[in-house]
Design goal:
alpha/beta; 8 strands; 383 residues; 14 helices; two-stranded antiparallel sheet; disordered N terminus; 6-stranded mixed beta sheet
Length: 383
């Protein structure tokens, strides 16, 4: 049977663009709220509210002053909110000027999936682990609706009950769980050994939110931790363990192992939670592409912190971003920002600049790195 030219063209288009027609036929989800869980990659003020504001020069690029974020400006979660037509998320722990009518952010810098057995001041990890964030969410869900029934001024600052079932639940956590083991002098094998427990605890959280009516989940995997200045500076590696981008391969391989188990968990959760739409986002690949191909993407010095003080990576654990010293009775800032954060990837040795966060967001918003490959605004669909 011969095909006409028009039918042949149509057939080729369907083969080359299998998702385009299906995607166009789907309606935008119009999420009324976002509920976020995570660590410093998405903390918009939680840790600052509890333990003191991240000081200058944090926030200088976009906010003009510290704004609870460990960056010079906006984070990926801020761009997600903006893309959905929502205001930036208020941190659940921040009691000043917060508006939760469009969702809430339970993330805090230093958070882990698995609770740590040390304090924040001992090792820098937050006591507000993912299970605690879930406790906060449970309390927020219940009490916000009690407040709404009172009808006073505070009722307008709370989300409607339907927002909890129609909202988008976002997750970006796991990085600190991996580095915590290394900072306790564990071997790579020892760190890999506890990854399944991390994943099990993560799955429990998703199940709990699902049981409360949550249906739409967007889960970011963890990034290439072996490319971060604070890891390269503090953990010993051999020359043979450095890859072509200058990153530490052992730590990145553990991150990839974590990500493979996380993706398996998402696939399993899709079977266990039939009413849920779960999107897995490969942030690792995006961030590694940015770092390894920095120059072609308009960035420079990908392994150096923009804000810091000295050393190969412009990172010093004793004199970090914003640190000050006394000189002849006068306080002098030595942890200064670089001249042009807009062409830098790393902000302070641990976190990304606004420019890098924007670039990452622009790569993931259209679904190119997602499973299923759906744009952000269609994350309520299963495929």
């Amino acid at each position: 049977m011969e095909l006409s030219n028009s039918k042949l063209v149509l057939l080729v288009l369907l083969i080359v663009f299998p998702f385009s027609s299906a995607t166009k036929s789907k309606s935008s989800c119009n999420f009324p709220a976002v509920f976020n869980f995570g660590d410093s990659n998405s903390d918009t003020g939680g840790l600052s509210a509890a333990f003191g504001q991240a000081g200058p020069p944090a926030g200088e690029t976009y906010f003009g002053a510290p704004a609870g974020r460990y960056s010079d400006g906006r984070l990926v979660i801020d761009f997600i909110a903006e893309s959905l037509g929502l205001p930036h998320l208020s941190a659940f722990l921040d009691s000043l000027g917060s508006n939760f009518s469009h969702g809430a952010n339970f993330a805090t810098a230093g958070s882990t999936i698995r609770p740590q057995n040390t304090t924040l001041h001992q090792n820098g990890f937050s006591p507000i682990s993912l299970n605690v964030q879930t406790y906060e969410f449970n309390d927020f869900h219940r009490r916000s609706q009690v407040i709404r029934t009172k009808g006073d001024v505070f009722s307008q600052l709370m989300p409607k009950e339907k927002h909890f079932s129609n909202g988008l639940y976002t997750f970006d956590i796991g990085q600190n769980d991996l580095t915590a083991g290394y900072f306790l002098n564990m071997s790579t094998d020892q760190v890999r050994a506890y990854v399944p427990d991390l994943i099990d605890q993560f799955k429990t959280v998703i199940q709990d939110i699902y049981d409360q009516g949550g249906r739409y989940f967007r889960i970011h995997n963890t990034g290439p931790v072996g490319c971060l200045p604070y890891i390269l500076d503090r953990l010993l590696i051999t020359a043979g363990q450095v890859d072509k981008a200058g990153c530490a391969s052992p730590f990145n391989e553990v991150a990839q192992y974590f990500n493979s188990k996380l993706k398996e968990a998402v696939i399993k959760l899709r079977k266990d939670l039939p009413l849920a739409a779960l999107t897995y986002v490969d942030v690792y690949s995006v961030k590694y592409e940015l770092i390894s191909g920095a120059n072609k993407h308009g960035f420079e010095h990908p392994l150096q912190a923009c804000c810091g003080h000295g050393g190969k990576y412009n990172y010093n654990i004793n004199h970090g971003c914003g640190s000050k010293i006394m000189v002849r009775g006068k306080e002098i800032m030595i942890g200064k920002s670089c001249k042009n954060p807009s062409v830098r990837i790393n902000w302070d040795g641990v976190h990304y600049t606004e420019a890098a966060n924007r670039w990452v967001f622009e790569q993931i918003v259209n679904g190119s790195y997602s499973d299923p490959p759906l744009p952000l605004n269609m994350a309520c669909h299963k495929q």
